[in-house]
Amino acid sequence: MLAFTVKNKNLVTRNKPLPRLRPRWALIRVLLAGICNTDVEILRGYHAFRGVPGHEFVGEVAAVNGISASEKTKWLGKRVAGEINVSCSAYNYRPVCAFCRRGLKTHCARRTVLGIVNHDGAFAEYLALPLENLHRIPNSITNEQAVFVEPLAAACEILAQVNVKQFRQAAVLGDGKLAQLIARVLRTALPTVVMFGKHKDKLQQAAAAHIETQIVRGDATDLKRVKDNFALVVEATGSPSGLALAQHMTEPRGMLVLKSTFHGAAPVETWPLVVKEITLIGSRCGPFAKAIALLHSKKVDPRPLITRTFPLSEAPAAIHFAQQPGVMKVLLKSE
User: Fold this and answer.
1) What distance in Å separates the CA atoms of residue 329 and residue 141, rounded to the nearest whole number?
2) Cα gap 102→99, rounded to integer Å
3) Total Cβ atoms within 10 A of residue 133
4) What is the DSSP pairing of strand 25-35 with strand 126-130?
């Protein structure tokens, strides 16, 4: 199969054999794959990953191993999205780790992570995942919507971690792909969501989704210029400087949700967390069922965020294009 691997901070073409399937694993033909900031950070050295990147996808089940013929009919040919953390149970490890025993499979001590940690991902014609990670996609949802299920689920995780009913409004710092999804998800639960970003065109996309917007410079001067305070702030800038502004904007006894992942350290003072008694919550992967339900209900439609679709064979050009100013979601399509 055609695949692309990370080498010397670039994507390089590889002809790889199809993944071998463990019992109760599926071979998935990738229909669309999304490029996100984590993929860009992987090229810069994040997690020192050297395999096939890519963790946002919609695909079609091509083969399943280790289940009955009647079970196979429920899967073969079906469109699916897949949770990216592969836990103890999928590898048949015994005993399972303490996190899996607590039901925290996304924090499994021996997990692999699709396209991120020791598991080849979606920048290829095929990938393999256990059946327990797969979610069927209803016919009401297009491929262009379904490819957003994984990042949309990450946005939905905030609703699982925070009782948003105690707030009247929220601030989202950042105007990129994940920030846009977070703002849209929060807007389904809150009357007012304000996005702070430095790109007018991206803020216009948020405004079209009934999200209030404010322009910032994205540098240290924002600490003096931005006077707004919120009880709930979500930091999704993807930048090391975002946390300082997020702390500045979170009111005393407020809640700050941290979403950014990037290669390197964030130069930030932590005293505002103590002085203002801020609750800081790290937030990562989320509930796929909730994300699929939002797409099915039409409450969230991420398709306006798609800037361009490249054929899979042009993946290096696609990831270069994805880093250009003003670009939102870039997709790879199998030919």
Assistant:
1) 18
2) 5
3) 20
4) antiparallel
**In degrees to the nearest 10, what's the CA dihedral of 183, 40, 26, 98?**
-70
Beta-strand runs (E) in the chain: 2-7, 10-15, 25-35, 56-65, 79-82, 85-86, 112-113, 126-130, 134-136, 169-173, 192-197, 212-215, 230-235, 250-258, 279-282, 306-311, 329-333
Contacts of 224 (CB under 8 A, 6+ apart): none
Which SS3 state, helix, strand or coil, does residue 69 take? helix
Whole-number percent of the chain with pLDDT over 90: 85
The owner of tokens 């999804």 is 181
d(CA 185, CA 153): 9
**pLDDT band at 263, cuts 50/70/90?**
low
210-248 pLDDT, tens digit each: 999 999 998 888 888 899 999 999 999 988 788 889 999
55 and 153 in contact (C-beta within 8 Å)? no
Interatomic CA distance for residues 126 and 18, integer angstroms:
7
Say if residues 93 and 46 touch (Cβ distance below 8 Å).
no
Which residues, at least 6 apart from 140, have a Cβ–Cβ distance to it below 8 Å?
296
Q: Give 180-207 pLDDT, tens digit per residue.
A: 999 999 999 999 999 999 999 999 999 9
114-163 residue pLDDT tens = 999 999 999 999 999 999 999 999 999 999 999 999 999 999 999 999 99
Residue 308 CA to residue 318 CA, distance in Å, equals 9
C-alpha dist (Å) from residue 240 to 170, 176, 194, 235: 21, 15, 21, 11
Q: How big, in percent rounded to 5, are the helix, strand and coil portions of the chain?
A: 35, 30, 40
* Token duo for residue 117: 């940690």
Q: What's the confidence (pLDDT) of residue 222?
A: 87
